[in-house]
Design a protein that fits this description.
Helix 1 crosses helix 2 and helix 2 (27-41) packs across helix 3 (49-56). This protein has helices at 3-20, 27-41, 49-56, 60-68, 74-89. The protein is an all-alpha fold. The protein contains five helices and no strands.
Length: 105
């Protein structure tokens, strides 16, 4: 997605992020989470922190801190996302990949 395309969909993305990340206790966590989503959606081959931060025009430490050391309950976010997906895309099946779950090997 180009920066121009992002500006066009940004209000919808912000609303989506607010709904999905609403369980996060702190406003700065919610803001960094929304920024992280924008970074994932912007064009670019590499989706690691530094290239995403460059595309967003921010210090990569903001993204890195949100992903790796900010304390928030991923289970609540995952639950909100699952409910949203079920309501909006009517999935016929779910694929579960255990690499995304802590403690699974």
């Amino acid at each position: 997605m180009t920066p121009e395309e992002m500006e066009e969909v940004r209000p919808r993305l912000e609303a989506f992020a607010a709904e999905m990340l609403g369980s996060l206790a702190r406003r700065d966590q919610r803001a960094k989470g929304e920024m992280y989503l924008r970074g994932l959606m912007l064009d670019g081959k590499r989706k690691s922190m530094q290239p995403m931060a460059e595309r967003l025009g921010v210090d990569h430490q903001q993204l890195q801190q949100f992903v790796s050391s900010s304390t928030w309950d991923y289970a609540k976010v995952r639950e909100r996302l699952a409910r949203w997906a079920a309501a909006h895309i009517s999935p016929e099946a779910y694929a579960i990949d255990d690499v995304g779950f802590p403690g699974c090997e």
